[in-house]
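Design a sequence for this backbone.
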């Protein structure tokens, strides 16, 4: 038997998540990973690297709970929100028996995590406005234990209708966990469902420091849920999910001054988003710029694959969404600095129609 034959069949056949870094490129304008465009300086204050870290660092948990408006007992910190996605499947889904469900076009890690763990995943395509097809979900719920709903949705950028969330939570009460993936919620904080936890025992909210907190390289995410859910996740999480330096920087980012700085960054991104949207709408090869509540915009272009390659060759790296359901002709553009936006605008203006 070869090494590959020794591996699990589903892993042999798995296509890994195509992250921005895996896709590569030789660009100098990186607008494909929804990162904050400039680095935020931090200094390490903890010098106890000879000791193992706390599993759930108290300072981080308490600071995030205060920021999110929940109790510390309702917070779990992990290696990015991606680990939270996986922990929920590990805790609630029996391989070969249970399933997860999500509504494409949406974030690609839901399927990859399910496949990696040998758990079935089902899809219910979003409606034409990218809202939930509630009847379609109801028809596929048998055996589903976890439902992932990204809001604002990546890559389309819109908030999911709150009333639809309520219908979904009632539909699945006592049957399945509903996960609101709020990776981009800092750009539209009024839309968070964190305040609903007391109403819905089956609600889970995922958060991250990767976007508005400008800490994508830190790999620090949060799961907000009721205490019984958190207790289950603590049974399956790694013993030391956060290194001491990560916990140190996360606690600084979540300090009162850190929160103020994050909100200033959000305000900056919203200004830059409007600048880019306004300019794109006057460019001939741009067919449609979709509304966004996030730090990226989805754009439909004429000959989008050729445009993507042309900009790639100029060092401007965007995210091609052509293979996603209902996103033919679409590219996703992260909001960068004004200079980066201008590079995109100038390059697109030069494209033949």
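Sequence:
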């Amino acid at each position: 038997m070869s090494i590959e034959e020794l591996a699990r069949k589903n892993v042999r056949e798995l296509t890994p998540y195509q992250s921005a870094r895996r896709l590569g490129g030789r660009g100098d304008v990186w607008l494909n990973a929804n990162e904050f465009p400039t680095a935020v300086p931090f200094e390490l204050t903890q010098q106890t690297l000879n000791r193992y870290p706390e599993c759930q660092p108290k300072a981080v948990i308490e600071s995030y709970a205060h920021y999110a408006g929940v109790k510390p007992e309702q917070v779990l910190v992990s290696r990015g929100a991606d680990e939270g996605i996986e922990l929920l499947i590990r805790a609630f889904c029996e391989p070969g028996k249970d399933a997860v469900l999500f509504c494409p076009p949406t974030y690609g890690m839901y399927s990859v995590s399910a496949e990696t763990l040998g758990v079935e995943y089902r899809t219910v395509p979003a409606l034409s406005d990218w809202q939930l097809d509630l009847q379609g979900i109801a028809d596929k719920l048998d055996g589903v234990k976890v439902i992932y709903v990204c809001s604002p949705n990546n890559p389309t950028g819109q908030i999911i209708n709150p009333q639809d969330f309520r219908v979904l939570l009632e539909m699945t009460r006592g049957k399945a966990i509903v996960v609101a993936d709020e990776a981009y919620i800092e750009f539209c904080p009024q839309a968070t469902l964190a305040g609903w936890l007391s109403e819905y025992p089956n609600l889970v909210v995922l958060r991250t420091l990767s976007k508005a907190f400008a800490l994508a390289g830190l790999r620090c995410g949060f799961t907000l849920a009721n205490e019984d859910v958190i207790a289950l996740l603590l049974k399956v999480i790694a013993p030391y999910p956060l290194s001491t330096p990560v916990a140190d920087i996360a606690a600084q980012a979540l300090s009162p001054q850190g929160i103020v700085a994050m909100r200033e960054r959000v305000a900056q991104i919203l200004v830059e988003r409007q600048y880019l949207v306004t300019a794109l709408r006057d460019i001939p090869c741009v067919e449609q710029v979709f509304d966004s509540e996030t730090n990226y915009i989805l754009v439909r272009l004429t000959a989008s694959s050729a445009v993507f390659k042309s900009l790639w060759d100029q060092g401007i790296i965007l995210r091609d969404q052509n293979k996603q359901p209902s996103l033919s002709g679409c590219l996703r553009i992260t909001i960068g600095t004004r200079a980066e936006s201008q590079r995109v605008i100038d390059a697109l203006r030069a494209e033949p129609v």
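DSSP finds 13 helices and 13 strands in the chain.
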